[in-house]
Design goal:
This protein is mainly alpha-helical and 67 residues long. Helices cover 66% and strands 0% of the residues. The chain has 4 helices and no strands.
Length: 67
């Protein structure tokens, strides 16, 4: 089912690029931010989705049709 969790546009970009296999450094280079900022976005996404790590967050985002 679609999710009631809302991701910001930037969080969506980060999780989408992560789902394509990009590292934090790769996402950062693509979006013009630091890897630390990417990791902070991933932490926020994980909190919202109640996931344990990046892979789990990507899987949950796909399951909830957020990406």
């Amino acid at each position: 089912p679609p999710s009631t969790v809302r991701l910001t546009p930037r969080e969506r970009e980060v999780i989408e690029l992560s789902s394509q296999g990009l590292t934090s450094e790769g996402v950062a280079a693509t979006l013009g931010m630091s890897p630390r900022t990417v990791n902070q976005h991933l932490d926020h996404i994980s909190l919202k989705l109640q996931t344990r790590n990046r892979v789990h967050a990507v899987a949950e985002a796909i399951r909830r049709r957020l990406i």
